[in-house]
Design brief:
Blueprint (H helix, E strand, L loop, with lengths): L5 E7 L2 E8 L23 H12 L13 H13 L11 H28 L3 E3 L3 H7 L27 E4 L16 E4 L5 E3 L4 E8 L5 E6 L5 E7 L1 E2 L6 E2 L4 E4 L10 E7 L5 E2 L1 H6 L3 E3 L22
Antiparallel strand pairs: 1-2, 3-15, 4-5, 5-13, 6-12, 7-8, 7-11, 8-9, 9-13, 10-12, 13-14
Helix pairs in contact: 1-3
Length: 310
Amino acid sequence: MRLQRRLVTLTISGLLASTISISPAYADGVPNYPGSSALQTGAENSSVKKLQAALIELGYDIPVSNGKYGPATTRAVSRFYAENDDYVDGTSVGPIGWNEIFIALEEQRAANRSEKEYDEATAEEVAAQLNPEQAATLIPEGQRGKQPARGTSSRKLPYKMPVIGEISAVYNQKGRRWAGRRHDGIDIRAPRGTVIKAVVEGKVTFAGWKKAYGRLIILEHSDGTSSWYAHMSKRIAKKGDYLQVGDRIGLVGASGHTTGSHLHFETRNANDEKMNPVTWLQTRAWKIEPAKETTDPAAQTPAEPVVEEK
């Protein structure tokens, strides 16, 4: 994981130290590096305790946060670097490693917050698989395949989107920055770490790095179509996983060729030909509101009067 950064300076023991860079989204949440030398095996202090607490919250196997930089902490740091393609400090933690760990912690916390928001936003929605006849009934002819306006919130669309954010580019949009001068999918701008979820069940057939797409996951669906989720900061689903609607795919990022944090969502048919993602979503992830009980007094059957015997 190579994090997007901006330059800041760290003050170590009252002296101006080296200039390093940290993520603009999490700069305020990263505690200052504690000293002039790297934290390493054998160290014992409150900074090690803070480091251990962060690694434990990230899911690394350290029995207790006791401030002692022992074998468990060494293994956890080494594993963190390996999983994030970062070997700057080996098994010790210098200023850059410290930043990487605490930025990752803030990203995870942001992901948890966005997942809760996603669940709350879709709690009252019912996902439906629509066949062409149903689509023709529910979707006005002029709206079939129509691209949403840029700047529209994904919440406001009548079909589910894999992430909560703002539409920043649409299918077939012209532009010099895209191969063939046309955009092959829909871009949804969202903060780094925002949760991406499946809107149609499918099997993960690819989970890795793919040139301009960056960190990419491809889902294959029962009808032979596939959906692509690109530029992620982290992949959560793994190749071979079968995802249900609502399962986590990954986290929004800016990997690969991109100008900022967003999800590139693309769909393809059974012949691996790119297709309009709006049409794909309209016929597979349409939002159907639950039927409401009628409150019209005229529709209610009046009770028959009770006749008492005399």
